[in-house]
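Checked the freezer inventory, then went back to the computational side. Two predictions to log before the end of the day. The first one is the construct we discussed on Monday; recording sequence and tokens without edits.
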Amino acid sequence: ATPITGPPPVAATPSRRLHAANFAFLVELIQGAYDAHIIITTGPREGELATQVAAQMSHSPIIVNQATPMQLAALLQRCNLYISNDTGPMHLSTAVKTPTIALFGASNLIQWAPPWDRHAVVARKGCEFMKTLSSKEWDTHTDRARENFEAITPDAVMATVEKITW
């Protein structure tokens, strides 16, 4: 069967987003290596960003706008792999046991990283934000958090894709 991945380039907080061009390049790498069908999921205010990413891709992805939590869970359960920023759908993906690669730039890994063996985390090496901090402390460091996310390269994520069992 053709692998299906569902990477959303979106997150409610801009400091938790991989740059749209990097996400587009990443899914191009995945499509080229695995002949994968790409599904981009969005929330209420994220459709435009998904369209921007899709416009940069050579193969048109399937864009799923504003699915209910139950619909999203059913969709994620059918994916062979889910790549996500630190978002609610990332946690839902791990809950339905879809192999998940979580991208972290500004979140506390100890508190929010996926718990099971079939999941992986990609974060900036040596990232200072990977300490246990209060929510207020995390929120005051958005510029540095943005830098942490921008340091996550498509090649680094792709290396993790190649290692994870999916």
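The second is the one RB wanted added to the comparison set:
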Amino acid sequence: ADLNTDGLKFQAKLKGGQTEGDFKSVASFAVAYK
């Protein structure tokens, strides 16, 4: 649960400061890591 929450925070930070493509890459990584 803690890891998932940290992942969401990380994704939100990237979504706010990076391109959509980078965000999708992080989301894909999060799913693969999960």
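For RB: The mean pLDDT is 67. Residues 2-17 form the longest helix (16 residues). Let me know if you want it refolded.
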